[in-house]
Design goal:
heterodimer, A: 195 residues, mainly alpha, Growth Hormone, Chain: A, 1% strand, B: 335 residues, mainly beta, Immunoglobulin-like, five-stranded mixed beta sheet, four-stranded antiparallel beta sheet, 1 helix, 3% helix, 41% strand, signal (chain B), cell membrane (chain B), lipoprotein (chain B), interleukin-11 binding (chain B), Type-I_Cytokine_Rcpt (chain B)
């Protein structure tokens, strides 16, 4: 069982959660804007359905309200680390295809990548606060995916950005759960030991 | 045997008298009233270009014995047009409901069948007892990028029709309007109104899923609304109200991150605090104009108020002034 929080820990947690919520909100707004630009510049249909792509963390979750605080933080962290790698790859692919028209898209991608990295770091801070070990990143990451055609790359990018937008929504909700006053007692489901 | 027979408006209907031969002598009645022979072709009853008023009980009796040989209930109606379907989540993240209706009546019984698919998964939309053209569904997943597809099929004896809605989980989120909106004047502040409200009771978890609010207000005498968007809290002080004017105020709500604005709340009325006018001559009839939380009407004093002993404003100068509408008009002009 986790020990009761000290007042300073509770305060620090609330502060980190508030800032995290704002970060997630800004990130989501930028991702939504980026999605519009991406769809337009890549010549895609905004309503196109994209099948789940391997390696893209799905934001969809069942029994979200029953998750513990630790689960929330760990799942968020794993997701944003994955998005960091995915966005870096998208940026690389973008640069390979780069024309003048896409320079703005490249900058927008880079800006979102920065926010994703910052948010991942923010999540690590929250985990440290709970004296949780930060899971190590898997070596150099998963093996590079097979080379996709240009169209497949574009569709994959659409899928990545859509899931990221949903993750940003979910993260704000997760952090609000963590920030609930009951979490400060250390006995809340928000930060209970994971089974 | 009694039958039910459904026919389209405008159709030509031929009714046979059970197993009676074509040349048998029969009498037909509609709702107990004999039908003229001109509508008969032998023992068959011919109704051309039927309309709604011809719905009813039709009976056929054998010639002289008056034995009932056949009876049918004719229901004239139309096949269903494409139904109107709406889905909405006013209790996110618990679930959503869909409701439907037909754009025009069919005049005959209809059955509705609704299917909800999320990706490859069939979901059950549980029908509400009241109203009966509504069903609700629980979200099994949250934050999904997979769209929901809802298909409503309406069927009656004369045909069928359907409509489909496809949407994202977050697109249909629309809270109910805020509740218990209250507007009060602020004592000693002629330009302020304090407005407070509550989250809609149908919104299950405002702490984790906070709402933001939109307030609109205008004096009754003007058409243009003022708007204020509020990202948190369930109260706001209006600080630029016209003194002495009755205001109409409404509030709407929206999830902080997703979905659309609610409808406007019930409107409330309030008038900012006004100073009680100083007295007076003995004939003066001055209505009390103290603060009230509901709309209050200030009856303008009809008497000139001039008391040399009184000090009005800064400076020890006695001022004669006429209160009432003139002052109010000046307030409007100079604010």
């Amino acid at each position: 069982m986790a020990a009761a929080d000290s007042p300073s820990t509770a305060l620090r947690r609330r502060d980190l959660c508030s800032r995290g919520i704002r970060l997630a909100g800004k990130m989501r707004a930028d991702v939504v804007d980026l999605l519009d630009t991406y769809v337009e510049q890549q010549g895609l249909d905004a309503s196109a359905s994209v099948a789940a792509v391997e390696g893209v963390p799905l934001a969809a979750v069942e029994r979200w309200d029953e998750q513990t605080g630790t689960q929330r933080l760990l799942e968020n962290l794993a997701a944003y680390r994955a998005f960091r790698a995915l966005l870096a790859q998208m940026l690389e692919e973008q640069r390979e295809q780069l024309g003048e028209a896409d320079a703005g898209l490249g900058r927008a991608l880079a800006a979102v990548l920065l926010q994703v990295s910052a948010f991942a770091y923010h999540l690590e801070e929250l985990l440290r606060l709970e004296s949780r070990g930060i899971p190590g990143e898997e070596g150099d990451g998963p093996p590079p995916p097979p080379r996709l055609s240009l169209f497949e790359q574009k569709l994959r990018g659409l899928g990545v950005l859509r899931e990221l937008a949903q993750w940003a929504l979910r993260s704000a909700r997760d952090l609000r759960q963590l920030a609930k006053p009951s979490a400060a007692t250390g006995t809340a489901p928000g930060l209970a030991e994971s089974p | 045997d009694s039958h039910i027979q459904y026919e389209r408006v405008g159709a030509d209907v031929t009714m046979k008298c059970g197993s009676m031969d074509w040349d048998a002598a029969v009498t037909w009645t509609a709702n107990g009233t004999d039908i003229d022979e001109s509508h008969l072709n032998g023992s068959y009853l011919i109704l051309k270009n039927v309309d709604l008023s011809q719905s009813g009980q039709y009976s056929c009796y054998e010639g002289s014995s008056w034995h009932l040989k056949y009876q049918t209930s004719l229901r004239v109606g139309t096949p269903p047009k494409e139904p109107v379907l709406m889905c909405r989540s006013n209790n996110y993240p618990k679930g959503f409901y869909c409701s439907w209706h037909l754009p025009t009546p069919t005049y005959i019984p209809n059955t509705f069948n609704i299917s909800v698919i999320h990706g490859t998964k069939d979901m059950v939309c549980e029908k509400d007892a009241v109203p009966k053209n509504r069903c609700h569904i629980r979200y099994l997943q949250l934050f999904s990028t997979v769209k929901y597809k809802v298909t409503l099929t309406v069927t009656n004896a004369l045909g069928k029709n359907f409509t489909t809605l496809t949407f994202d989980e977050f697109a249909i989120v629309k809270p109910d309007p805020p509740e218990s909106v209250v507007a009060k004047p602020v004592p000693n502040n002629p330009r302020r109104l304090e407005v407070s409200w509550q989250n809609p009771s149908s919104w299950p978890d405002p702490e984790s899923f906070p709402l933001k609010f939109f307030l609109r207000y205008r004096p009754l005498i003007l058409d243009q609304w003022q708007h204020v968007e509020l990202s948190d809290g369930t109260s706001h002080t209006i600080t630029d109200a016209y003194a002495g004017k009755e205001y109409i105020i409404q509030v709407a709500a929206k999830d902080n991150d997703i979905g659309t604005w609610s409808d406007w709340s019930v409107a409330v009325h309030a008038t900012p605090w006004t100073e009680e006018p100083k007295h007076l001559t003995t004939e003066a009839q001055i209505t009390e104009t103290t603060s009230a939380s509901t709309s209050s009407f200030m009856a303008p004093p009809t008497t000139k108020i001039c008391d040399k002993g009184a000090v009005v404003g800064s400076g020890a100068v006695a001022v004669c002034w006429t209160a009432g509408l003139v002052v109010a008009a000046y307030s409007v002009l100079f604010i």
